[in-house]
Specification:
single chain, about 0% helix
Length: about 160
């Protein structure tokens, strides 16, 4: 009969010696290419099979929680840090824009935000609605945060 064993591989790789069925639950530390070498033995001898498993991050960050502070002609947005299994790379902030048909379009403002806050000029008396989302280095995006609607103070 054939028997299988792991000759080389990442921590946690298990093989059933009778069936050769491989099981493994990679962690965030295993991201990238991981080589696994399986050894197969029978009465005729030994053979080895090597293959590469590519472990990718598909877990999105959690949604941040958005807050706003209002000043004269300025709005400061801040948000609680999101969490991610590997790490949050940054944030994208969006402003609501009402379309002609009455639906809301979220328009990215300020581009990539590595920090947990941003300040922007606002028309005094104008009402603005914002949301934010986190993303990780693999490009996974969190759900949108809560929305905040603020009215900038008149000067």
């Amino acid at each position: 009969p054939l028997t299988w064993s792991i000759e080389r591989g990442p921590s946690g790789v298990v093989i059933d010696p009778a069936t050769g069925r491989l099981t493994w639950t990679p962690s965030a530390a295993d991201l990238g290419r991981r080589t696994i070498v399986v050894r197969v033995t029978n009465a005729a001898g030994v053979d080895r099979q090597s293959f590469v498993a590519l472990v990718v991050d598909r877990d999105p960050p959690t949604a941040p929680r958005l807050h706003a502070a209002v000043g004269r002609g300025r709005i400061t947005l801040s948000w609680d840090a999101a969490t991610d299994n590997v790490g949050v790379a940054g944030y994208q902030v969006y402003r609501a824009r009402l379309r002609r048909n009455g639906s809301v379009e979220w328009v990215e403002i300020g581009g990539f935000q590595p920090d947990l806050s941003m300040s922007l000029a606002a028309d005094p008396g104008a009402s603005e609605t914002f949301t934010v989302r986190a993303f990780d280095a693999a490009g996974n995006e969190s759900p949108l945060s809560n929305t905040v609607t603020v009215t900038a103070l008149r000067r």
